[in-house]
Amino acid sequence: MNIKFKEIVINTKRRREIVNITEEIQKFVNESKINNGICLVYSTHATSAIIINENESGLLEDIIRKINEDYPIEKGWLHNRIDDNADAHLASTFIGPSVTIPIKDGKLCLGTWQDIFFLELDGPRIGRKIIIEVLGV
Amino acid sequence: MNIKFKEIVINTKRRREIVNITEEIQKFVNESKINNGICLVYSTHATSAIIINENESGLLEDIIRKINEDYPIEKGWLHNRIDDNADAHLASTFIGPSVTIPIKDGKLCLGTWQDIFFLELDGPRIGRKIIIEVLGV
Amino acid sequence: MNIKFKEIVINTKRRREIVNITEEIQKFVNESKINNGICLVYSTHATSAIIINENESGLLEDIIRKINEDYPIEKGWLHNRIDDNADAHLASTFIGPSVTIPIKDGKLCLGTWQDIFFLELDGPRIGRKIIIEVLGV
């Protein structure tokens, strides 16, 4: 069995932002020479998330709108007594920091309408770190 | 280490529908002869999800009711300029396309009240594909 | 490849409660002598979840407040015809029973502000079982 790691570093420009990382991940799967296994994509931040869905600009705006509606910035959050980003922590908690995708015959088993995205919830930020781990044979 | 894949194909009949796939997954775990490892259940669609909870008919209806309330079909979603299923994409994005379950002594480590379900969010559809991957020894 | 399992047993005291399990998990990763791989943390209950976020007391209260708002106890849930905890099942369904974290150089790849928590949604309960599985080399 082989295990390979890669760290992707992302700089974001807006408070909420969706960054497509599919190509970088598939490229690393290719480089890993691992043909069958799993790919774990893990964000090391408590105010971000990793999501999978369709790469359509309207939908990506809908996702951000939905997050803004479900996690309002001002709602008397207790965490905001010491910081100003409780909304981002809450969204990150419930959306989750990672996804796991099967790798078969050297390819990520993504469906036709599935891309992998880093979801910035409290940008702009420099140096967001995402770990890609490929494990298999 | 061994890795085994199986594809489950599901046809759905309603817009929102919950399909119990636990038995098929456990059967494949048995066939794989892998005694200890993980089972990754991954849906290849951007308008579906995989969930784990209790197989009780009232609860399954509650789950669908909750999705309908949280992801209304008409709410001026931008994705609906080019399609009519933004609600399904949004629910899929936030619920997630996969689950990972430990396998120990040849069995999925599901609790007494845990079953695994395919969640159709934009049916009816023919040929929904779910990948089951068993990895271990 | 090696695979090691450990079961954590937790007793909770309140209906909603957040229990930090990070230290026990890292300790088990150390004991496993597995340096590179993955750590799957899986709750075997349909009225609980596993989450990752910052260990800040205000935020942990915000998380519980948000769950109470999003999953009200009384809302005519059908599951409550046979039980009284539909809200807990629904939260568990959508938040999810597990997390997977990369292990690199013997350490969980958690970010500075990431801890791992058991989320009780229907306590108080005796004997909540969480499976920690470490898989790797």
Overall 3D shape of chain A = elongated
Give me the oligomer status: homotrimer
Number of domains of chain A: 1
Q: Can you write the helix and strand succession of chain A as a string?
A: EEHEEHHEEEE
The percent range for strand residues of chain A is: 35-45%
Number of helices of chain A: 3
Structure description:
3 copies of one chain form a homotrimer. The first copy, chain A, is an alpha+beta fold and 137 residues long. Chain A has one domain: YjbQ-like (Jelly Rolls, Sandwich), CATH 2.60.120.460. In chain A, 26% of the residues lie in helices and 36% in strands. The first copy, chain A, is built from 3 helices and 8 strands; from the N terminus they run E-E-H-E-E-H-H-E-E-E-E. The longest helix of chain A is centred in the middle third of the chain and has 14 residues. The termini of chain A are close together. The model of chain A has no long low-confidence stretch (mean pLDDT 98). Chains A and C meet through strand 3, helix 3 and strand 8 of A and strand 4, helix 2 and strand 5 of C.
